[in-house]
Design a protein that fits this description.
The chain has twelve helices and ten strands. The chain has about 325 residues and is α/β, with parallel strands linked by helices.
Length: about 325
């Protein structure tokens, strides 16, 4: 009887060992499907801007960088008219992340709009440069010369229209009374200028803005200086503190004849989310913003300035916890 029972006793550890190995193999095969502790899984929506603007381009490039850094985290892009619509989408849950100018955020908060207290920032991205575009032969030399003219002012709920209204006011003009305001976006304003339907248009965007560069390749245009408005602009309200003096270099739009340095005004763009955003996802997206600086900057030149020293300055918003975790991890 002992000779019969002995093999069974020896087989029990063998069977147990096989089961353990199979369990380990199954765990290894299953793990990539459900993610691991250091692998962020999910999907988010980023609200950008008009298709021919820099917001849209930046969003596409960030999406590509994120696909490299966190392939299990999917980012969908959604175009918009601009900053104020983007902030409203965050508040309503239509978007998880968005790009918006600092002045638009300040206005949104000062007016107590929906969800304003829940907004948080991941990074300061790059500066928008305010551009006043006219035909090369236009008599307009200063903003005040726009009185009585047909002027593209940006779409409703866009950051462009917000800053345009303030710039005109700083020049002594009321947007609703003193100019014939065309509430159009960068997708339409260059064609309207070419066709003679407007005399000038304002745009706020990174350099170079594709639509303006394209326009300069077939129409002789000029950029009107705006820097003289900054002293008056800074007196107009608490959110105007986010405007700063800037210059557009001659190579921003090399197709413009006799291109030279143009004094203008700039405002920072922020990557914005809400306090409810998953900290791990916010940390990963912030990481991709910094990791992608050089790659993104080759096409959005202003993004070359993004770095750890400047990205954390996200006034008027506090940093999201996930973004804060990232900055602490790279500084430790």
């Amino acid at each position: 009887m002992l000779s019969v029972r002995s093999p069974r006793r020896r087989s029990a550890p063998l069977v147990l060992g096989v089961l353990v190995v199979l369990a380990l193999v199954a765990a290894l095969l299953w793990r990539p499907l459900v993610g691991s502790d250091d692998r962020v899984v999910g999907s988010v929506t980023l609200s950008t801007g008009v298709n021919s603007g820099v917001y849209a381009k930046y969003g596409q490039l960030l999406q590509g960088q994120l696909a490299n850094d966190a392939p299990a985290l999917d980012m969908a892009l959604r175009p918009s008219v601009g900053s104020l619509e983007n902030l409203a989408r965050l508040a309503s849950g239509e978007a998880d992340y968005a790009i918006a100018t600092a002045d638009s955020i300040a206005v949104y908060r000062s007016e107590g709009r929906e969800g304003a207290d829940r907004l948080r920032a991941c990074a300061r991205l790059y500066d928008d440069y305010i551009q006043l575009v006219v035909p090369a032969g236009s008599p307009v030399r200063r903003t005040e010369d726009l009185a009585g003219l047909r002027v593209g002012v940006g779409q409703d709920r866009s950051g462009v229209q917000l800053v345009t209204r303030e710039l005109l006011a700083a020049a002594g003009l009321d947007m609703d009374r003193d100019v014939d305001a065309a509430r159009a976006g960068i997708d339409d304003m260059p064609r309207m200028l070419e066709a003679g339907r407007i005399d000038a248009f304002f745009w706020s965007g990174g350099l170079p803005t594709t639509a303006v560069a394209r326009l300069s390749s077939y129409l002789d245009i000029r950029l009107v200086p705006l820097g003289d408005l900054l002293p008056e602009l800074s007196e107009r309200g608490p959110y105007t503190e986010y405007y700063r003096a800037a210059v557009m270099p001659p190579d921003a739009y090399p197709e413009i004849s006799d291109s030279q340095v143009v004094d203008t005004i700039a405002v920072a763009n922020l990557l914005v989310t809400t306090e409810e955003a998953d900290p791990a996802i916010a940390e990963e997206i912030t990481r991709s913003v910094i990791n992608g600086r050089d790659r993104i900057g080759r096409q959005v030149h202003a993004a070359q300035r993004v770095d750890l020293r400047t990205a954390i300055y996200t006034q008027p918003l506090e940093l999201h916890q996930g973004a804060r975790d990232y900055y602490r991890s790279v500084k430790s």
